[in-house]
Amino acid sequence: MSVVIEQPRSPRSRKAANWEKYGWMYMRASGALLVILIFGHLFTNLWAGEGIKAIDFAFVGGKWSNPFWQVWDGLMLWLALIHGTNGMRTIVNDYTSREGVRKTLNIALWGICAVLVVLGTLVILTFDPCPANGPAELLPSFCPAR
Amino acid sequence: MPTKPAGTLYRGKVGMWSWVLHRITGVAIFFFLLVHVLDTSLVRLSPEAYNAVVSTYKTPLVGLGELGLVAAILYHALNGVRVILIDFWRKGVKYQNVMFWVVVVVALIAFAGFAPRHLIHVFHLG
User: Fold this and answer.
1) Do B44 and A42 touch (CB under 8 A)?
2) CB–CB of A129/A143 below 8 Å?
3) Is A124 exposed, middle or buried (0-12, 13-18, 19+ CB in 10 A)?
4) Chain B closest CA to A130's CA: distance in Å?
């Protein structure tokens, strides 16, 4: 299918919602929030304390027993995955020339995005920092098994 | 004999290269994000599974990769703020060139602060 370029300066048809505009606005709004969320994430996880050395199950368990970090990470998950997927959609639209390829790649992108958003949300909401099957020495210090 | 393209305000200049870098860093961060959601999801499986996978993040090779990731995030985040300012600030377009160099300098300062501390943790020098 060949690409149709509209006549310059032709009035926009008012029939459909302007999704490209909402996408454009979303990239800026989510981007501004993500700067704060991700810099905070990097600061607490990679800078504070022992950095990468300290990351283990007990570390995550300690963080996610606090609703503050559950909300923080949940927001980051949704905003970042949709921001990244929409960015990839832009790139796919720019570099594919065949309509079928473009559509297939975009469907795959949004499919992966949906699966990871659902998976991540379920993990944050149903996570147990003190699982019964966990070896006591790997659990956070506040678990009764310790 | 064909003449060289005269060039524009955009082509081959800060406007173009900042955009190219924004794309490349964006794609890199996207693929890391896919992996990162999956590895973190292992906390739901068992403490052993999560600790086993996260221990690979502490190896020298992946530890150096994290430096690249942080550099990419710093650039993408700060240049994203520049894009927002170009779009919404009255003088954004006028200062887009200066703002690019501010982005580079601020990213370098933040990276210089992070890199030694991270390397100390990865290579157990502390």
Assistant:
1) no
2) yes
3) buried
4) 9
C-alpha to C-alpha distance for A70 and A72, rounded to whole angstroms: 5
Which three-class secondary structure state does DSSP give residue B92?
coil
Q: Compute how many other C-beta atoms are within 10 angstroms of the C-beta atom of residue B105.
A: 11
Our measurement of the distance from residue B94's CA atom to the centroid of its chain's CA atoms, rounded to an integer in Å, reads 25
pLDDT in tens, B8-39: 778 888 999 999 999 999 999 999 999 999 99
Q: Which two tokens stand for residue A45?
A: 């996880």
- Over residues B40-70, the pLDDT tens digits come to 999 999 999 999 999 999 999 999 999 999 9
**Helix, strand or coil, per DSSP, at residue A132:** coil
Complex confidence, ipTM: 0.91
B39 interfaces chain A, CB cutoff of 8 Å: no
Domain residue limits, chain A? 21-138
Please report, as a single letter, which amino acid is at residue A95: Y
Query: Which CATH architecture best describes the domain A21-138?
Result: Up-down Bundle (1.20)
Distance CA A71, CA A83 (A): 18
Give dist(CA A18, CA B28) in Å, integer.
Answer: 29
CA distances from A57 to A65, A138, A140, B122 (A): 12, 7, 8, 18
What is the Cβ-side half-sphere exposure of residue A98, based on CA atoms within 13 angstroms? 4
Residue range B62-94, pLDDT digits in tens: 999 999 999 999 999 999 999 999 999 999 999
pTM of the model: 0.90
Nearest-Cα distance to chain B for A15, in Å, is 26
What is the total residue count of chain A?
A: 146
